[in-house]
Amino acid sequence: MDDIILQILNGLDKGSAYALIALGLTLIFGTLGVVNFAHGALFLIGAFCSVSVSRLLSISFEMVDETQLDFLGNPLKVETPYVHAWFGPEMGASLIDWAVPIAILFAIPVMILVGFVMERGLIKHFYHRPHADQILVTFGLAIVIGEIVKANFGANPIPTPAPAAFAGAMDFGVMLGFEPNAIIYPIWRLVYFLFSMVIIAAVFVFLQFTTFGMVVRAGMADRETVGLLGIDIDKRFTFMFGLAAAVAGLAGVMYTPILSPNYNIGMDFLVLSFVVVVVGGMGSLPGAVLAGFMLGILQSFASMNEVKSILPGIDQIIIYLVAIIILLTRPRGLMGRKGVMEE
C-alpha cells in the first residue's frame, strides 16, 4: 500500500507540470484557435527566469575581511554577495536561499510581456492559416528560443536548489497512519503540487466568475457574435495569450528544484503536454487538467521496477499507448467539444 501511495504522489507532481502546460496550451487553442508548438519554450523561459534570479542574487564583489588572515597574517579578500552588503548577512543569505520563490515575482511580468510580444509580433499573422503552418512556425520559434538559451546559459543542466526550509523530505506516511519511514517524500514536490492546484484553481475562478472571463468564454464559443456586440474580443484574447504564457512560465519557475533546467527542457515537456491536450480533448480546459494528472500517475506506476521487469521500457511509451486507446474509442478525447479540429 505504501508503494502505491508513493507512486500516486510521484504521479501527482509529474501530472502537475503536465496539467499546467496543457492548461496554457488549451487556453491558447480555445481562444485563438492556434496550435502553439512554442508553448514548451515558455516553460523553458520560466525555468531560466528562476536561474537568472538565483544568479543575480548571488553576484558578489571582493571585500577585505579583517577577521580572516592568510598564512602570512594578511587580511583575506573574500567574495561577498551584494545582497549581503545591502541588506546584511542574514537577510542577504535568506534572499539567496529563497531565490526560486522570489523568481515568481520576476517571472510574471516577464512571461506576460513575452506572451504579448509573441502573439502580436508573430502568431496573429497565422490565425487564419492552416494548422500545419501554425505548427511549423511555432516549432521553429521554439527551436530559436532554445538555441538562444543555450548560447547564454550553456548546454548543461543548471542546479537551482529549493529553499532550505523545503529542501529535505518529510515522513508523509505517518500523516496517513503508516509506520514511521514507510513513505518518505521530498517536501518541494508536495509544494509544487499545491502550487499547481492554486494556479489551476485561480485560472478557473478567473474564467468562471469574472466579467472578463465570461466574455472570453463567450468568445471561445462564438467569437463572431461577441464581436457584433461591440466587444473588442481580440484584445481580450491577446491578454489570454499572456495569461497562458504566465501559467507555463510559473510552472517552469517552480519546477527547477525538481529537475535542473537545460535548453531542451521545454521541448521534453511540450511533446508530452500535447499528448495530454489531445487525450483530454482539444479545447477542453477541465479535460487538459484531468488528463494531465491521470497520465502523470499512469507514467509513475509504469516506472516501477516490478512493472518494467515484466514490460521493459513501458514507462517511456505508456502515455502514447493510453492516447492511442482513448482516441480509438473517443476520437474527441475525454472531454473534447464537437467540431474542434474537425473541419
- Helix and strand succession? HHEEHHHHEHEHHHHHHHH
Query: What's the gyration radius in Å?
Result: 23 Å
The first-level CATH class name: Mainly Alpha
CATH topology heading? ABC transporter involved in vitamin B12 uptake, BtuC
Indicate the proportion of strand residues.
5-15%
Tally of discrete structural domains: 1
Oligomeric state of the chains? single chain
Largest sheet: 2 strands, antiparallel
Low-confidence stretches: 339-343
Structural class: mainly alpha
Question: Portion of residues in helices?
Answer: 55-70%
Q: How would you sum up the global shape?
A: globular
- The separation of the N and C termini measures 47 Å
Q: Which architecture per CATH?
A: Orthogonal Bundle
Based on DSSP secondary structure assignment, what is the total number of beta strands? 4
Number of helices: 15
- Lateral arrangement of strands in the main beta sheet: 1-2
Roughly what is the average pLDDT, rounded to an integer? 85
